[in-house]
Design a protein that fits this description.
heterotrimer; A alpha/beta (about 400); B alpha+beta (about 140); C alpha/beta (about 500); B: about 140 residues; alpha+beta; Alpha-Beta Plaits; 2 domains; two-stranded antiparallel ribbon; 5 helices; 8 strands; globular; C: about 500 residues; alpha/beta; TIM Barrel; three-stranded mixed sheet; 16 helices
Chain lengths: ~400, ~140, ~500
């Protein structure tokens, strides 16, 4: 069996480990346009922060490919898939044949058309190791950095560089920061923390009308001078390889719970796909690392012939800034249970007898117990909600659950 | 694989397991030296209720969502044992978000810590050895 | 806030809690484990504090302290010394003057009466009648309790007629004596039941009935019928391997029992068949027994009720005329007689009774065995003794004095964790034994408890084999009543006469 994986990040690793759990013999080829050993992509901000380095960023040990008998074709882009001949064509003109193919192409930065952007010399995205390295080279303690985008990527970038530069300004079209994972209260808390703690200046509800080399003029008329620009407005999934050959794409590549695309023997996983969000019962791109791994793993096992279903995808995020931690999961609809205490904030969302989502800021200890309630769709009738809403704890779970999980009772 | 199993019927909530955990993981020979004057940060934690207590530590899940969620590859599973390479951990808290038992927590030094069944301490799990009532046992099940 | 005590009522605590602050890591295990609330953490001072006036010296904290930072010492606060008006005597006077009540105590008589076990020495073979190595040769410690026939009878074909009355088969010559569910906890009972099963011996329900969960241990259970008749009904009688009529117990001969209402929990009330929360009072006498003839009626009532399939035991305290009483019991139809010495334990007894009534088991045993032999009825009844059997040598001596087997109570409780604080009557046993408080009861895991009991009795049984081997005896049957194997030391002529042994050197 010939397995070919396009991509070399989380979904690809999940796929390799999924295949090898079932099939120790088949040939695996990984093709990536990046030159690096697989690395933890979200680590790039931590690298800038000094919490890790390129060596420690390796997502799997050095002998990972060897141990798993994986051939790598790095620094090489796949330009097309021939679904009839079952081969992929590389940018060096060669082709690689596959029996089962995984498309784990991830996403790319979305850079909206902004007048004069091409005049900005030091303009960066913040997606890849190379992006981070380039940014690191471009900044120094005198740099004034403008970051467009107050989402997860933009703000992690801010965390990574703020202590290395003179100033950081953040502009976002939205009226609050981290809108994809926080509610208004949470956004305000975190924004205030970042302003107070690191003097980061936010300009919200605004966007760039025009750039000159070192100045951004916003739609409101405000002018911001900068030395270095980071554009982190959003991402777009890399779906073209599949859409070009008629595979179903709706925003992302459409896959089922076995990570199969609409084309036989072609699977997809990770940020390039749409997942079914069980908290909202809607299909959406859930561009988070665990989702990529689990989809990749399911793809790998299914590619190798063992049925594996990944069907409890929910958005969930852990993000923190300077030891101020945020953990969220699920959807923010339903009845709210709110606890506020200074910089600590917790909001639980219950709906139809389930914990549908939560936001925890500050004290995030044992958050995974809430996450499990969301992911597993545990009926709240089976837990002591009065207890668990105070703090995540197994005491609130049914005794039978504890007996099984802690005591090994069958 | 041998694991630590919990029988809440016998847990007295004495918290000795927490102290023995902190001691075993301190790397210091003498318990007094290791723990005196310190607030312990054990990898096993007691949950206390009105009439029920039980200890919780890493369950070394068959399908470990923490390992699969770890952004840095610091968490890994070998022969059933889930360990953390603290040199790789950046403290992103994704494992805290993922662990259904609340069993991964930050260490004093920053990176996350978790129960590794005392495999790095050169002994059988100290929590079990010190449990006065066999409320936690280390065995194959 | 500390309770106020009037100066007239103040009695200094018996013990002091000594904490080595160099070693204390303030883990608060002592605090969490002390039901008497002796220890607490003072966050202002940042250290552990103790109030020794509440300490009963159960050693729970000492045993659990992970850094061995605790010890309990005797309080050396003293009154002006007097050999007569000693501290404890004065303390008791102060207490009674304050309360007007009878003093209450638990466990056995702790006073300085002679311990005859320690005044008897065991023989060993040298040269002639060589000793036996129990590791190489068979050594029998199995005992059958019950009436033995006077003679072997045969039918016309010469085949042996089974004229044997029901017997109890003990793989070891040790049984666990009567301790009621109520006086001790569910887990203590379960530990005893599990151990008895594992050891091939018996435990005894006491007069508290048999918890429904423990009917499964029936073949290793002796069910007791006492003056309160708690929990006695047909299924109960049928559940046990034998039925014991309790007339008296060594710790409090002549008086009944009193289980306070707060110990009568749902389970205890169901097991005893009395209303929840009501005091369970066992009368001093059985109100239907005023003579040996009455006793005989009850013995045969119980036999009749269980189709003559089970031995009936009669238990009495060792009192002055115990030999005559034993003779009456044998003639009353009982299969086994139990004599409980004055050091026998209890969950609660009036102090004066516990410490002043009854006689030593060693003397009682010797005189009962001799009396039954003299009357030619020793084979009609088996003889079991209890009341402070402390080790295997005590057992060997008891058997050599004429016992068939022994009961152990206090020793078994110590195996389960009891540290002899002797505050059972307080109901706050920190070791989960003499309590009904759920949080305390769970401190005794029966898996551990049963294993410890099995360890103890197994060790003793091996020691018994070794001692017997040393005497050149390979069966406990040959040791029974073999008083030649004992010599007295430091005993008077009269004591030697009663014990039926010679003095060392003779």
């Amino acid at each position: 069996m010939n397995y070919v994986i396009i991509g070399n990040s989380t979904a690809a690793v999940g796929c390799i480990e999924g295949i090898r759990a079932v099939d120790t013999k088949g040939k695996i080829v990984v093709i990536s346009d990046e030159p690096h050993h697989t690395y933890g992509r979200p680590l790039i901000s931590y690298m800038l922060l000094g919490k890790t380095d390129e060596e420690h960023m390796k997502y799997r040990p050095d002998d990972f490919y060897e141990k798993n008998k994986v051939d790598t074709i790095l620094n090489t882009k796949v330009v097309s898939i021939d679904k009839d001949k079952k081969s992929v064509k590389l940018d060096n003109g060669k082709s690689v044949k596959y029996d089962k193919l995984l498309v784990a192409t991830g996403s790319r930065p979305f850079v909206p058309p902004m007048e004069g952007l091409d005049k900005v010399e030091k303009s960066f995205n913040f997606m890849t190791l190379n992006d981070a390295k380039a940014l690191e080279k471009a900044i120094d303690s005198n740099s004034n950095v403008l970051v467009i985008g107050a989402g997860l990527i933009g703000l992690k970038c801010v965390e990574g560089i703020v202590d290395k530069v003179k100033s950081v300004q953040v502009v976002d079209l939205a009226n609050r920061i981290l809108p994809s994972i926080l509610d208004e209260k949470g956004s305000a808390l975190v924004q205030k923390y970042l302003e107070d703690k690191k003097n980061i200046q936010f300009t919200l509800n605004d966007s760039v009308a025009e750039f000159t080399e070192n100045t951004a003029t916003l739609k409101s008329g405000k002018k911001i001078d900068f030395d270095v620009l980071v554009v982190a407005v959003g991402v777009r999934p890399n779906t073209e390889l599949v859409s070009e050959i008629g595979g179903e794409v709706r925003k992302g590549i459409v896959v089922n719970t076995k990570s199969e695309t609409s084309i036989p023997d072609i699977y997809a996983a990770g940020d390039c796909t749409v997942s079914h969000n069980i908290a909202t019962d809607e299909d959406q791109i859930i561009a988070i690392l665990p989702n990529a791994y689990l989809q990749g793993e399911a793809a790998g096992m299914n590619m190798a012939g063992e049925e594996k279903v990944f069907d409890n995808s929910v958005p969930m995020n852990a993000i923190g800034f300077f030891d101020y931690h945020i953990i969220t999961a699920g959807a923010y609809t339903g009845d709210k249970y709110v606890v506020e205490n200074g910089q600590e904030y917790k909001c639980l969302f219950t709906k139809d007898g389930y914990l549908n989502g939560f936001i925890m800021i500050g004290n995030v200890s044992k958050a995974g117990i809430y996450t499990a309630l969301v992911r597993n769709k545990t009926p709240l009738s089976e837990v002591d909600f009065d207890l668990i809403k105070d703090s995540p704890q197994l005491m609130a779970m049914a005794k039978s659950y504890r007996d099984e999980k802690l005591g090994g009772a069958l | 694989m041998k694991k630590v199993w919990v029988n809440e019927e016998w847990c007295l909530g004495c918290h000795l397991c927490e102290y023995n955990c902190a001691y075993a993981n301190s790397g210091i020979d003498d318990m007094v030296k290791a723990l005196k004057g310190k607030t312990i940060n054990p990898r096993i934690r007691i949950e206390e209720g009105d009439s029920i207590n039980f200890a919780v530590q890493c369950r070394h899940c068959d399908d470990p969502i923490c390992v699969k969620s770890c952004i840095s590859g610091a968490l890994s599973k070998t022969d059933g044992l889930i360990t953390i390479d603290q040199s790789k951990c950046v403290g992103c808290y994704t494992c805290v978000m993922a662990c259904p038992y609340g069993c991964i927590m930050p260490s004093e030094e920053g990176p996350m810590q978790k129960c590794e069944l005392c495999t790095k301490n050169g002994c059988e799990p100290a929590c079990v050895k010190g449990c006065p009532n066999n409320a936690i046992v280390y065995e194959e099940r | 806030m500390r309770e106020f005590v009037s100066p007239q009522n103040f009695v200094p605590s018996d013990f002091e809690v000594v904490r080595n602050s160099d070693r204390c890591i303030a883990c608060r295990v002592c605090e969490r484990q002390c039901a008497n609330e002796v220890h607490w953490y003072d966050s202002d001072l940042g250290k552990m504090i103790s109030d020794e006036t509440k300490c009963v010296n159960c050693h729970r904290c000492v045993s659990l302290c992970p850094t061995r930072a605790l010890k309990i010492v005797k309080n050396n606060d003293t009154y002006r010394p007097s050999a007569n008006w000693t501290g404890p005597v004065i303390d008791q006077l102060i207490r009674q003057s304050g309360t007007g009540g009878a003093l209450l105590s638990s466990m056995g008589n702790p006073e300085k009466y002679p311990i005859y076990w320690d005044k008897m020495l065991i023989n060993a073979s040298q040269v002639t009648n060589p000793s036996i190595d129990p590791l190489r040769e068979p050594m029998e410690t199995r005992v059958f309790l019950g009436k033995k026939p006077d003679a072997i009878e045969r039918d016309e074909n010469g085949k042996v007629i089974n004229n044997l009355d029901p017997q109890l088969k003990l793989d070891v010559p040790v049984m666990f004596s009567a301790m009621s569910y109520g006086a001790i906890s569910y887990n203590a009972h379960k530990s005893l039941a599990m151990a008895a099963k594992e050891l091939g011996t018996y435990y005894n329900t006491g007069e508290g009935g048999l918890h429904k969960d423990f009917y499964q241990y029936g073949p290793n259970t002796i069910v007791q019928v006492a003056s309160g008749r708690f929990g006695v009904y047909k299924d109960y009688l049928e559940a046990g391997a034998a039925i014991e009529i309790k007339i008296g117990q060594g710790a409090k001969p002549g008086i009944g029992g009193h289980l306070p209402g707060q110990k009568v929990t749902v389970d205890v009330s169901q097991t005893r068949m009395i209303p929840m929360g009501s005091d369970a009072i066992s009368p001093a006498p059985h109100h239907d027994i005023y003579s040996i003839e009455d006793l005989r009626q009850l013995v045969f009532t119980l036999k009749e009720a269980t189709a003559y399939k089970k031995p009936v035991i009669v238990k009495v305290a060792a009192v002055h005329n115990v030999a005559a009483i034993a003779s009456g019991i044998a003639r009353g139809g009982a299969d086994i007689i139990v004599i409980d010495g004055f050091r026998g334990g209890t969950g609660a007894a009036p102090t004066r009774i516990r410490d002043s009534v009854g006689i030593p088991i060693e003397l009682a045993l010797a005189s009962v065995d001799q009396r039954l032999r003299d009357e030619g009825i020793r084979n009609h009844i088996s003889l079991v003794v209890g009341g402070s059997i402390r080790n295997s040598a005590d057992i060997v001596k008891a058997i050599a004095l004429g016992a068939d087997a022994v009961y152990i109570g206090t020793a078994a409780l110590i195996a389960l964790g009891c540290h002899q604080c002797r505050n059972c009557h307080g109901g706050k046993c920190n070791w989960g034994i003499a309590t009904q408080r759920a949080d305390l009861v769970k401190r005794l895991n029966p898996e551990i408890g049963a294993q410890r009991l099995v360890n103890l009795v197994t060790a003793w049984n091996n020691e018994i084999k070794e001692i017997m081997g040393g005497m050149g005896i390979n069966s406990i049957e040959s040791l029974r009543g073999n008083r030649l194997m004992l010599r007295g030391i430091g005993l008077t002529e009269k004591e030697l006469e009663i014990l039926g042994i010679k003095h060392a050197g003779e």
